[in-house]
Structure prediction request, 560 residues.
Amino acid sequence: MNLKELYQEIILEHGKNPKNLGKTENFNKDAKGNNPLCGDNVHVYLKLNDKKIIEDISFEGSGCAISMASASIMTDLVKGKNLTIAKEIIEDFLGMIKEKEELNTKNLNDDEKTKLMCLSGVKQYPMRVKCATLSWHTLVSAFENKKTEVNTEN
Amino acid sequence: MNISQIKKEFPIFDEKIHNNDLVYLDSANSSQKPIAVIDRINDFYSKQFSNVGRSVHYLSVAATNLYENTRISVQKYINAKDKNEIVFTKGATEALNLVANTLGQKYLQEGDEILITELEHHSNYVPWHFLRKSKNIKINFAEINEDGDVPLENIEKALTPRTKVIAITHLSNVTGAILPIKEITDLAHSKGIIVVIDGCQSAPHLKLDMQDLDCDFYAISCHKMYGPTGLGILYGKKKWLDELPPYQGGGGMIKEVKKDRISYGDLPNKYEAGTMATAQVIAFDQSIKFLENIGIDKIMLHEKELIEYGQELLRKNNSVKLIGNPKNKGGVLSFIVEGIHPHDIATILDEDGIAIRAGHHCCQILHDKLGIAASARASVGIYNTKDDFDKLNNSINNCKKIFNLK
Prediction:
């Protein structure tokens, strides 16, 4: 285990000053998620246009550095991407965190990959995986505009 | 009292956590187990095991006697009047559910009110909430003051002519406030109100005397009391346990079963349906012996010194904010560190071998009131020392360093 790997500068920076924090104007899809064990919660808003491109995305919520940084990086990476590609990025991320697969994606450039890789330290901390994945599961739910809250325990 | 000697009775402290000695500051969650309790479970299963109260063979009779011996030890330890006032349950949660459910079945009427406090653990709120749904019972909350305490006058203020039950914690698992149970009970009884106490945090740390407290029900969690998991105790005044209906039906709790009628067994069998946590009950006798051998007065003194030391130390740490400053405080120190979420603190502390809890500690009502989503909590047991708090403080400083805070 390596705390330095978990709490890299970039994670701390995203955790402290998250990108895309707030409520997207004219959003047309949204979903909420929460972790009942710790009280972390997130609300993802997105504007998906006719061409199925994520024109804008943001989130509101509170949580630990890992969950805030993860939501920040996520919104950053999928913004401007089309729905199919965004879904593939989500799969790749969840695979990396949960199945311990190597990050293998053609949908991100090197810079973006580096950002996403910053979160890979979490997989060594099983109790913290839910912190990192909550916003991503909530994004999937937002694509479907689900009204039921994503719950890390179900 | 020699703490290092006592600590040696707990084999867990021989283990290394991420190559560090274990600093266990999570006893409010669950305490560690002394070797006598661990050995007793092993011995019972190895040499004496049988189900209790069912058969006439040698092992069954011996096991039944051991099981009932614990009931008598508990009775004495908490100074209950009658051994049949001690009911074994699967935990304090089940004990509180039993009380809420059976009072709901027989005693409470639609529109009656229950008074709880903003300090309550979910297990002393949710069982009453069921009655909101099923019987249209109203739940009122006695408010905390700015010290995270609930003084008698806040209880008195929240009473109404329809209050039938006061269900309150003896010792808050977040602010550490010790509530004036005896005074609350006097007040309640003068108005014909039943008093139910959640004693989970108090039972391992305070002197218990049911006859002196005079409450109607008292719930205890054995795994927080240096005992096994899967076991709780409900103390209930005999008149209530006699009068209220059974909670669960099954083997062992009946007198006679016919196709057209069933009669229920006498106390304590009436409330102990099915095969009970036999080994745990028998081993819990060793937990009581462990507590008695040290002496509750010495335990209280040691833990008071510890918590005062910890409180002073964390107060001096400039980014730490302690939660609650009650007049009478038990061995619980909850805090937040500005700029670092409690979960991040808990992960970093864990790397140093320090076990604390982070989250809402099953007290969302209280955290909402305090305006925070989560807190970090260090809680003590008999094995803790001042050195543990020094390590805690150093490790908090390490969190600040990692997060680039001053």
Q: What stands out?
A: Chain A touches chain B at residues 1, 3, 6-7, 12, 16, 37-41, 62-66, 125, 127-128, 131 (CB under 8 Å). Chain A has one domain: 3-142. Chain A has a mean pLDDT of 90. The first strand of chain A starts at residue 29 and ends at 35.
